[in-house]
User: What shape does this take?
Amino acid sequence: MPEAPQQWIAPLAPVPVNATVTVPGSKSETNRALVLAALSSGPSAITGGLEARDTALMRDALRTLGVTIEENGDVWVVTPPEQFTAGGTIDCGLAGTVMRFVPPLAALAGGEVGFDGDRQAYDRPMEPLLGALAALGATVEGDRMALPFMISGDPALRGGSVMLDASASSQFVSGLLLIGARLADGLDLRHQGPSIPSTGHIGMTVSMLRQRGVRVDDTQPNRWIVAPGEIKPRDVVIEPDVANAAPFLGAALLTGGRIAIPRWPSTTGQPAPQLRAVLEKFGGKVSFQGDSLVVRGRNELHGIDIWLNDASELTPVVAALAALALQSSHIHGVAHIRGHETDRLAALESNLDALGARVRQTHDGLIIHPHVLAGISWPTYADHRMVHAGALLGLVVDEITLDDVSCVGKTMPDFVERWQKMIDDSVAAEQVAGRLDASP
Ligand SMILES: O=C(O)C1=C[C@@H](OP(=O)(O)O)[C@@H](O)[C@H](O)C1
Ligand SMILES: C=C(OP(=O)(O)O)C(=O)O
Assistant: This one.
């Protein structure tokens, strides 16, 4: 079950932010590492996995399929079963990685596995993935080819060639690639349709498969060939989550401050280069100090024109920054985020309009004309990234009130505490520098 709703008034920044912010592990890498450990030929240890709703749902899902996961502090030891267990029901919550990565595992179980999730998850696209699993030999039952549904698997699923349209989510491709090596004939997967978003995340899947000894040929565009064979166990340390770093880095831009994020992943399938490009386009100065990414803002944001297809989960943060820029901005290439946790284009248009910005949806994005913002209401639509956007606006706009901040627990349950700490650390830094009176 999602958490009970919790209202939150986003704090104003009394000084430019100036802090070092540690960011928890990547959701995408954590859930891939869990799934690959469950598919591999022996136990694997995962260190620094993200502790949040999406990864708890993934651990529960794998346990329902017979996987053993022992959690000792931040080290999780995952032991795969001989064969995935049927008979259970998986709760996907609102997690794309659970609803798209676990059905392929269920297709390898010896019987029926049920899938359900939050009511809001029923609207997220599933049909291309379920259609592909049916084409590969699994039986899929459900009224709408969306959640809820049932899969009857076969541990000896043959696999082979299959075609799908992955323009609604790269996760359809990733989910199938993850099991490709476990199919008797391997997998020859092709995409046909409008371009696939978030291709960096498919790159993350391919590179994590290769690190475990799986042969993947991705030399042709929109085609992936996975050879059948062993998925080797591997111990991993999870890198920080780039999309969860974004609101903190955005705070440096908005307040003319400085934020450092240690352990910045330099080679990653996460949208790290895209985030850096966004911050620079807005006028931020990005540099590295040791293993930290450091962003400095100038208190003035330029309007930007940006293709965010490969980093679409950054859209709410980018839109919030754009609403406070000096010129208009245009975000392109993100039509598919209408099927993310909520219809993010509609949510951003309606929320920012209500604060006074003039925002228009296009066929694949948003045009944002900034305006002096005022107002209090910031509905979050159960979407963690709408919390990030509201928090950013609240740094400089009085009394921004989020109707429910609990949904941020999808990927960062202690976001509010980390946000407040960023502000408190910044005030303390000003006091130490003698620029602010330290008396209460
Ligand atoms: O595979 C992954 O871990 C993800 C892929 C992307 O999904 P879409 O391709 O649906 O945008 C991204 O937005 C999501 O946050 C995580
Ligand atoms: C789109 C997102 O999540 P999911 O993995 O549920 O698709 C996201 O985190 O912004």
